[in-house]
Amino acid sequence: MSEEIVYANLKFQDSDKKEETQKSDKCGGKVSSAASHSQQKTVLILTLLCFLLVTGVGVLGGICMYHLILETEMIKSNQLQSVKEELQENVSLQLIHNLNNSQKIKNLSTMLQNLATQLCRELYNKEPEHKCKPCPKGSEWYKDSCYSQFSQYATWQASAMACSARNASLLKVNNKDALEFLKSKKLRSYWLGLSPREDPMTYALSEKVFLPEEFERSTDDINKLYCGYIDRLNVYYTYCTDKNKIICEETASKVQVESVLNGLPEDSM
Fold it and tell me: Closest Cα partner for 170 from 252, 222, 245, 236?
C-alpha cells in the first residue's frame, strides 16, 4: 500500500517537472523570437543608415566635383577672355599701324605722281610727242586737259559729233585754264562748246568764264540757231549750219611713272 503511494507521488512530481519544463521551453521560445525580430529591425536600420550615408557621400562628392569643374571652366573662360582682349588690342594696334602705313604710302604715291608729272612736262616741252604725254597723239597738253585741233571745216553739229567719237567734246570755256589756253593760242574760226542761241551776238574774250548748258534740241531746230566760235580774242555767233574748224577737249590721263623713267636718257638714270 505504501509502495503505491510512493509511486503516485513520484509520478506526480515527474508530471510537475514536465509541466515546468514545457512552460520554461515555451517562455524561452517566445523570448528568442522577440530578440530575433529586434535584431532584424536593428540590421535594417543600420543598413538604411549605411545606404543613406553612402548616398550622401556620393551626392556630396558630386557637388564637390561640380563645383570643381565649374571653377575650372570659369578659370578657362577668364583665360580665354584675357586672350580675346589681348588679340583685339593687337588687332587694333595692327590696324592703326596699317592705316598709318597706308597713309604714308598714299602720300608717297601722290608725291611720286606729282614728280612724274613735273618731269613729264619738262620732257614734253622738249619733245611734244614724248611717250609720257598723257594725251592722244597729235593733241596739245595744257594743264589738266588735252586739246586736239583739226584743220577741216564742218558744221557745229558735225564738229560736236566728231569730238564725241573721240570721247571728247567741243572746247568749253568753263574754267580759267581753258580761258588761258584760248588767249595763248589766239585761235581763228574754231567752234566752241557754247549753247546755241536764237539771236547772234559778239563779245570780247575776257576774264569771264562761260558755263554752257547741255544742248538738247532736234536737228530741225539747229538750222535756225546761232552757234559760237572763237576768232583770236573775240567770240562770235553765226548760223550753226555754217562751217568752221574743230577743236576738241578732253581730260588728260594720269602720267605713268614707268613711262617717265623709261623715257629718261641713260646718262640721267
Answer: 245
* CA end-to-end distance (rounded Å), the chain: 172
Helices and strands counted in the chain (H then E): 5, 8
All structural domains of the chain with their residue ranges: 1-133, 140-252
Tell me how far CA of residue 243 lies from CA of 153, 166, 209, 236, in angstroms.
5, 20, 25, 13
Residues 144, 145, 147: CA angle, nearest 5 degrees: 155
Q: Which phi and psi (to 5°) does residue 70 adopt? A: -60, -45
C-alpha cell at 200: 547772234
The answer to whether residues 159 and 192 touch, using CB atoms and an 8 Å cutoff, is: no
* Overall residue count recorded for the chain in this entry: 269
Long-range CB pairs of 73-80, under 8 A, 24+ apart, other chains included: none
- How far is Cα 230 from Cα 192, in angstroms, rounded to an integer? 7
What is the chain's pLDDT, residue by residue, as a tens digit (269 residues)?
545 544 545 454 555 555 555 544 544 544 456 667 778 888 888 888 887 887 877 777 778 888 788 888 888 888 888 888 888 888 888 888 888 888 888 898 899 999 999 999 999 999 999 999 999 999 999 999 999 999 899 999 999 999 999 999 999 888 888 888 988 898 999 999 988 988 888 888 775 666 555 444 545 578 889 999 999 889 999 999 999 999 999 999 999 988 887 766 554 44
Q: Which of 109, 112, 90, 111 is nearest to 101 (CA)?
A: 109
| 5 grid coordinates | 503511494
Class in CATH terms, 140-252: alpha beta
